[in-house]
Amino acid sequence: xxxxxxxxxxxxxxxxxxxxxxxxxxxxxxxxxxxxxxxxxxxxxxxxxxxxxxxxxxxxxxxxxxxxxxxxxxxxxxxxxxxxxxxxxxxxxxxxxxxxxxxxxxxxxxxxxxxxxxxxxxxxxxxxxxxxxxxxxxxxxxxxxxxxxxxxxxxxxxxxxxxxxxxxxxxxxxxxxxxxxxxxxxxxxxxxxxxxxxxxxxxxxxxxxxxxxxxxxxxxxxxxxxxxxxxxxxxxxxxxxxxxxxxxxxxxxxxxxxxxxxxxxxxxxxxxxxxxxxxxxxxxxxxxxxxxxxxxxxxxxxxxxxxxxxxxxxxxxxxxxxxxxxxxxxxxxxxxxxxxxxxxxxxxxxxxxxxxxxxxxxxxxxxxxxxxxxxxxxxxxxxxxxxxxxxxxxxxxxxxxxxxxxxxxxxxxxxxxxxxxxxxxxxxxxxxxxxxxxxxx
Amino acid sequence: xxxxxxxxxxxxxxxxxxxxxxxxxxxxxxxxxxxxxxxxxxxxxxxxxxxxxxxxxxxxxxxxxxxxxxxxxxxxxxxxxxxxxxxxxxxxxxxxxxxxxxxxxxxxxxxxxxxxxxxxxxxxxxxxxxxxxxxxxxxxxxxxxxxxxxxxxxxxxxxxxxxxxxxxxxxxxxxxxxxxxxxxxxxxxxxxxxxxxxxxxxxxxxxxxxxxxxxxxxxxxxxxxxxxxxxxxxxxxxxxxxxxxxxxxxxxxxxxxxxxxxxxxxxxxxxxxxxxxxxxxxxxxxxxxxxxxxxxxxxxxxxxxxxxxxxxxxxxxxxxxxxxxxxxxxxxxxxxxxxxxxxxxxxxxxxxxxxxxxxxxxxxxxxxxxxxxxxxxxxxxxxxxxxxxxxxxxxxxxxxxxxxxxxxxxxxxxxxxxxxxxxxxxxxxxxxxxxxxxxxx
Lengths: 441, 441
Description:
Helix content of chain A: 40-55%
Structural class of chain A: alpha/beta
Oligomer: homodimer
Number of domains of chain A: 2
Strand order of the largest sheet of chain A: 11-8-14-13-15-16
CATH class of the largest domain in chain A: Alpha Beta
């Protein structure tokens, strides 16, 4: 593609001659502002968003066999014969009775002279694989015995019994605790938190329920604003009335209920600076949407919350991340999960997130000035190349192309780089134009 | 003090014999539970809290001359003759006209043949001192010229002019931006963000207004729940109806208004795990209070918010931090400010915060089991010793004593260590007992 054509940008032929001017940055700025005139009336953009939303609502959960389908599958819990482990959200009574049954079977084994032993799913990395059909990382079904009468496993068997009893106590009180709380209830036994954390994940797998069902929660750092109403522990939260700060996403997803929305899409934002701009400009009033961010690396609470929104509201999810390998990595955690939590990937992941921006191709398309782009470090390039090998990237040809562009130009840019065209360029020009052109992949 | 007497703990003589039992941890646990019986009815605790709150409401802002007084002084902005710089919150019109006046005076200087130059307060560390009377770090009144016609300062003078014009543009639009946004508007000139950030602080000092008045905000990470109602950008927020997640503290304090509360005190919590416990147990319904946390190191938004609450509601502030040198350091940032923001210490600091817990003396008093305490590292001890030299610690004899206890025992403990007595020990026994005994320093 010729330089001139490549530079023509999203609006077509506009601005070809200005790009020859010596002062590149200011020409880029006036070009960027000229994009404003390309914007159609909001009504017309809203019409296409409505079509997108209704298509998203109608799409049936794809079956695992439909090739390439990014299923938002409520995996069939009855298919216990499947090759991978699926844990599910369970209520207090169900988890408690699962613990009771497990402990009873151990007791029976002791009484029958077969000894005290747990059967624990193996969570080693060789047991964690990416399933293209499901488009997420899963934990294969392979178990190991954890007998008490074995010098290698005696300690771990004890820790497992203790964690089971602690979780039982938490559930009986109907409260939630953090992993740190759990560790401190028996420091002498657990020695360090990594041990109780690991066994907690084991217990999730053994019981077949999510860690949130065990009422052991991670700290939350996510916030949400926009066209969303939900109940947090019974309190009705209207996210259009949460000011600029937004509502902190609750750590305990099982206390979230009554989700309602008239939004047309969910806008997932990598960082809080962009979130603040969108919240202050009340972007959701112009284009009805729900805006949320985990302020960097996605935490479990935000991932659970996003998935709940997607499952219940069936809205398309559009993502705004930095144009660098970490932006893509963050997307991958939302979409496919992390290896560490592979056993719970069905509940933690939100498939079919569209990459709205800032994409490597946007840098030229929107003529982000050279000085607002940053050179990629050797480490960035290494991470970028690793991402090219990730199955979840390879599945999507347009993503591969974008990542190749990034690695070829060796340039990265933050969402904030759009501020070089004005502080409100993001909300007034860039995003509306992206939505108008349905420019997501 | 004999071992027996030291171990007698807050309730007096109780439990002396159990401490001889071999299983120390479980004896400590049963002793800890026995403290429950020491609790008086809530009404009686509430009566003393009401007395505390009304004393706090009546206390007049102490003058700078009253020795040792921790003044919540709205420093008299008229006293421009004072030896240190006081910046103040200013509305958009006031800041804009200050910028206009500043630029006019520069223009006049050019026309008079004296050249283009700014006079900028020096923010070097030798110019930052702790004033015991004010109990905070302030910036002394010493200025340096920043002429354009000097090869050393030409660049900085240009950057200063550019930042002034950007701030002017932000104020004219009535929006808020982040430091990162500001940097990206002219990367070519600013080169790296440290430069635009530093000049932004210079501009605050030059104009005599807070950075929030410039509408350049930091990202927020704090959350609040409890007996508080306020308006965030016009939306009415009732913090008793914010579920377990709480309300994210808004980044732009000037959009906060209409603060109302029937709380008796403000409970400042270091970390989110303790915050979650308090929120889930709705501690504020039993003891009317406002609970807030910055989730670790206090950010500017949370510090501004706390100060606003204290100034407008005149409530006592009680702090729950880890029993380690960093817990104390976090307290010092809330109370006295950080050196970096010394010019704005009057607006960012909240004097007279009471150290409720977890204090080094609590570890024995509440018999926190040995295995839940952690040995201090060499670095911890070094930081602890440095804290002993800090003026703000030296001012308070009981704080010195606590810190000496920490350094003598070489032990630290997190708030979460209280979970060793049960997940809800914090909210059901420890805090009520602390409040009952008015055990803060």
